[in-house]
Amino acid sequence: MLHRLLATVFFLCSFLLFSSSKSLALPGAEQVGVIANKNSADSIALAEHYANAREIPRSQVFLLDLPLEETISRESYQRLLVDALREKLSAQRFGTRVRILALMYGVPLRVQAPQANEEMKSRLVLATSQLDAARKEILAAYFTAESVGRPKDKKPELPKTGSEMEFLRLTDASLKQAAKRIASLESAESREQAQQQLVGAITLFGGPSALLANLTADTPEREAQLTAQSSRLKNEVASAKAIIPQLKANPNKKNLGRMYDLTRRYFGATGVLALASKEKKTRSFKDADASVDSELSLLWWDRDSYEVNGRLPNPYYYRSLLKTSKAGPPLPILLVSRLDGPSPEIVRKQIDNTLLAEKNGLKGVAYVDAKGDKLDHKRELSVW
């Protein structure tokens, strides 16, 4: 019940949704769906009370067969909440009309992270082994880059770096510096030998795509060779980019193996590192738990259309960095609020008190968190 104390703040949404101020151009009751737990008498009673108070049609009050616990499993969330609500909305042709969901006391608060099945565990093991191999290959590319074009008795040392990303940048810079050293070698034979070593290191590090970006020709003959090979390699890299997502979308053992093989062949160890890191993060479900409220905002999104692991930026948030087209997101994002609290009596008061505030006005002292920013009176209104 402790978590429900946090939910009391959501009662403000019920006031905002139905404020009588016409200047706000807020949506009407016909766009609101009220969600209650059919296994809780309090949840049903509060949903009906709220719908009556806000003149929401009874047909837009949806009673779902949900557990009474505050936490719901991912499988139960999908089956009992998402699928059931979709079915009810579609059956009454509310799918395009209802844009706001008001969740009542009694509806679970938290969605558990998915439980990894045997397939997921197998993919996690494969991703981990690929990560280990990629890191060893990147290390080998670094040592080659540091030693090529230098005296053999000068052995490179492993640098101290703060992060894996920093080491990747350092290796990339070392490869570029090696190319400059090779160009300054006096002996043509030495240049040729060093060039071959560097080609191997660059290919190991970033594949043909990195090779195209780093290699330079030191003779007209080599320039002609690189030009001829460039077009072919670009076509192969483009084909690999198209094939790899298809293999990932059909993840049997053979396809996953080929996915990593193609990635290593055309994008090198750094490509494998990126792919395996994302696979490991996604399949480990480390950050895959979620709020029911936020997850329901993607009610119409298919389960496979977004990753449940991690966080997604909110395109409705004005500071969001998510780039969307002028037409908006490809699928609707619902506005979800919750009427909840430590007890049914408190929730009922939330509903009734917002009505009184709308009728008589809201008076008293309000505190706003200014985040420590200094107040600029010239732009005070825009800040709030």
What would you say this structure looks like, in words?
By secondary structure, the chain is α/β, with parallel strands linked by helices. The protein is built from twelve helices and seven strands. It has helices at 2-7, 11-17, 41-53, 74-91, 118-147, 164-183, 188-214, 220-249, 253-284, 292-296, 344-360, 380-383; strands spanning 32-37, 61-64, 71-72, 100-104, 110-111, 290-291, 335-339. Helix 3 links the parallel strand 1 and strand 2 (61-64). The longest helix is centred in the last third of the chain and has 32 residues, at 253-284. The model is unreliable at 1-24 and 322-328 (pLDDT under 50).
Share of helix, binned = 40-55%
| Rg estimate, integer Å | 29 Å
N-to-C SSE string, H for helix and E for strand:
HHEHEEHEEHHHHHEHEHH
Shape designation:
elongated
The major β-sheet equals: 4 strands, parallel
Number of strands: 7
Structural class estimated from helices and strands: alpha/beta
Determine the N-to-C terminus distance: 33 Å
Q: Mean pLDDT, rounded to whole units?
A: 83
Beta-sheet strand percentage?
Answer: 5-15%
| Widest β-sheet, arrangement of strands | 2-1-4-7
Indicate the low-confidence ranges by residue numbers.
1-24, 322-328
- Total helical elements: 12
Q: What are the defining features of this structure?
A:
384 residues, alpha/beta, four-stranded parallel beta sheet, three-stranded mixed beta sheet, 12 helices, 7 strands, elongated, disordered N terminus
Précis, in short:
With 384 residues, this protein is α/β, with parallel strands linked by helices. Helices cover 54% and strands 7% of the residues.
